[in-house]
Amino acid sequence: MASGTRNVTRFWEWGRKIVCVGRNYADHAKELNNAVPTEPVLFLKPPSAYVREGSPILVPAYSSNLHHEVELGVVIGTGGTAIARASAMDHVAGYALCLDMTARDVQDACKAKGLPWTLAKAFDTSCPVSEFVPRERIPDPGDVRLWLRVNGQLRQEGNTAQMIFPVPYLISYVSAIMTLEEGDLILTGTPAGVSSVREHDELQAGIEDIVTMTFRVDRH
Ligand SMILES: CC(=O)CC(=O)C(=O)O
Ligand SMILES: [Mg+2]
């Protein structure tokens, strides 16, 4: 797992890119009145978006509607360009539970103006991540349950079997556009149930009971 002096189990320290897939669950696309896509919708977060348990998720000062999106993250082990779907899983080192924190009011405004989603999706602490989960612990990333509670209340529950574009397809698709490198993370989209969080809320999420994490929300 180690590469030089770095260890991919601490991928968030590598400064690698975070590639996010949007609208990959039909029930989530519909809840936001978005069309169900015929090819993956992609956007990026910078490595400064990472936040780890013990530090708070910060509501951007310019947003009054911060949403949680629970997602399966795929950690790339072996990089590649134009990776074939058939060999895509050979490039996976493991997984992480991720939140794609989204300033929904800002995203709506960007959409209305035809602007990119950077302000809504790429701010500091917009990508809370769990511990690294070795690939052996998730033999089929196309069949795991994701869940998220806010202050103890279940808000999101979905199975990765509902993904429109499964993990091997995404690895192949993304790597044909931008080279994937060791330590990159792909966020694979969120199931339905996204909702607002506020200062002092507590978010708990899990990939089944394989990995769980807890974060508090704070304001800048
Ligand atoms: C509408 C979105 O924010 C798309 C997205 O991130 C998703 O997971 O779906
Ligand atoms: Mg998302």
From TrEMBL:
Statement: the UniProt record of this protein carries the keyword Metal-binding: yes
One of the record's GO cellular component terms: mitochondrion
Family: Belongs to the FAH family.
An annotated GO BP: carboxylic acid metabolic process
GO molecular function: acetylpyruvate hydrolase activity; acylpyruvate hydrolase activity; metal ion binding; oxaloacetate decarboxylase activity; oxaloacetate tautomerase activity
Catalyzed chemical reaction(s): oxaloacetate + H(+) = pyruvate + CO2; oxaloacetate = enol-oxaloacetate; 3-fumarylpyruvate + H2O = fumarate + pyruvate + H(+); a 3-acylpyruvate + H2O = a carboxylate + pyruvate + H(+)
Protein name: Oxaloacetate tautomerase FAHD1, mitochondrial
InterPro entries: Fumarylacetoacetase-like_C, Fumarylacetoacetase_C_sf
EC code(s) of this entry: 3.7.1.5, 4.1.1.112, 5.3.2.2
Fumarylacetoacetase-like C-terminal domain sequence ranges: 17-217
Record keywords, A-Z: Metal-binding
Family annotation (Pfam families): FAA_hydrolase
